[in-house]
Amino acid sequence: MKQLNLKLIFPYNWYHFRKVKVYGDNGKLLSKIMHCENLSLLIDGNTKSITVKLDFLISEIFLPQDSEEWNIGLFLDFRDRFPIKYFDILKRKCLTGKTMSNGEFENFNLSFYNQSKIWVQKANIDTLALSLGIFISIGLLIVALIEQTNDYQDLVFFIGLISLISMLMIHFEKEKILLYDYRNRMLATGLAFILGIQFLESSFAVVLTLLFLSFVFLLKFVKNFYTIKT
Prior knowledge:
Elements: E1 2-8, E2 19-24, E3 29-34, E4 38-43, E5 49-54, E6 57-62, E7 69-76, H1 84-88, E8 95-99, H2 102-106, E9 119-121, H3 127-146, H4 153-171, E10 176-178, H5 179-197, H6 204-227
Parallel strand pairs: 1-7
Antiparallel strand pairs: 1-4, 2-3, 2-5, 5-6, 7-8, 9-10
């Protein structure tokens, strides 16, 4: 008999309340394991592989035959970038694992997923574009409050409020921010500005000014995005 040590780590809040089934190479169910659980099993020393399964996700993990004890870290193998990650997690072998040394197994935790993330230093974020986004958001909120007869007043106010929250979240981030978070928030906010402005009933000058500032906001973000240092 040999000892099989298993540890399962899921990212974000994915599958945190689900159990992954672990099978031996004879097809027999060995055990079930949950997120952040550390499990030790005694299995047949002639076992050459184990299979892990969760719904349609299934992978076979081969065990080194020159070891008396196996440490296996189980994880989701995906590219942590939007929207690619949502396609990767649909792959059958997204749930997988690998053998680890005692030290690697001991330190195997959620930080494992940070290795594939791209971070942006706070100092490299375009503060002018961010300030412009906050200004436009406040502008939409003020105009929405003024336009009491506008049938779309609530929509414009909602877009302004959500945009302001999104910009402030970036502003108050400490030291660094995930690149895809920064990109998605800025891009979504810029597009929301343009959408919200379409429902304004203010003077042509106000609408044109906000629309112009929104395009400047998007252009500055795009320029900053391609020159940013991660």
